[in-house]
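ok trying this again, last paste got cut off
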Amino acid sequence: MACKECLSGALHEGTPVGREETIHGLPTYVSEPPAGQVTGIIVVIPDGLGWTFNNSRILADTYAKRTNARVYLPDFMDGCALPVGVIAQMDTVTDQGWMIGKILPMMQLVSAMIPFTFFTRLSVTQPRVYRFFRDLQDQNATLLPVGAAGFCWGGKFVFLLCNSLEKAANGRNLIDCGFTAHPSNLVNPADANAVTSPLSVIVGDKDMIMSLKEAEQVKGILQSKGKDTHEMVIVPGATHGFATRARPNDNVAVQQGMQATEQAVRWFKKWLVKSSL
C-alpha cells in the first residue's frame, strides 16, 4: 500500500449512526440494520485509514441498512491506522505548487507510513484477523451467515479468508462469502487460485496497485471457478480507492463508488441467507 491513490480522495460528510463496542477483544464500530431480524453479519476490513475513518463507518451503515445485516468494523490495526490528515498531505505533495511547500507534508507522510507499514504487516495482522473471525464463528449460536468486505489493505484478507483453509472450532469456514474493492498486497495468481468461497471483486482499469493485465488474469481465474459463485468487475477509468474515497465534486468518481456499493449490497443479499449454509 504505497501508491499516491492509496492516500488520495476525500473525507465524506455525514454522521455515522452506529456505536462503538469491544467485540471479540477488539474495539469495533457496530451498525445495526433497521428494526427487524438480523439476517447475517458483515465484517468490514478497511483501507489504511482504519476503523475510525468516517467514510468507512458511513459505508458500514449503508451495508446494514440495505442488507439487513449486522455490520462490524473492527480495529484490526491495533491503533496503528494512518491519520486522516495524510489525504491533505498527499494532495499538497502531488500538486503543482512550489517544492519548498511540500517538504513538511512529505516528512509528515513518511513519518505516518513507516510505523503503519511496520505495525500492520501481514505477519502481525493476519493472526489478529483470523482470531476475530474464528471467535465470531465459534460464538455464532444462531448460525448467521458471515461475510467480509475489504478495501485496499483489507482486500488481501478477504482473499485469504475465501480460501477456506482456516476453520473455526466448530468446523465452519471463517466466512461464507467475500467482497473486495481495489485490493492491495495480493500475491497472484496464487491468492486468486486459492479462493474457494464465493467472492466478488471490483477494481478500476487505472489502478496503480493492480495493473489491467493482472486484473484480467485474476478475473479469468475467478470466472473459471463458476460465474454464479465468483465474479470480478473492471471499471473503465476508475483508479485505486474509488469505492471509499471518491471526491464529492467528481461526478464520475461518485458514480464509480456507487457502483461498488451496489455490487457489494447485491452480493451480500445473495449469499447472506441461511439457505446458503
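PB: full thing came through this time. The beta strands are 19-23, 26-31, 40-45, 69-74, 146-151, 177-181, 199-204, 230-235.
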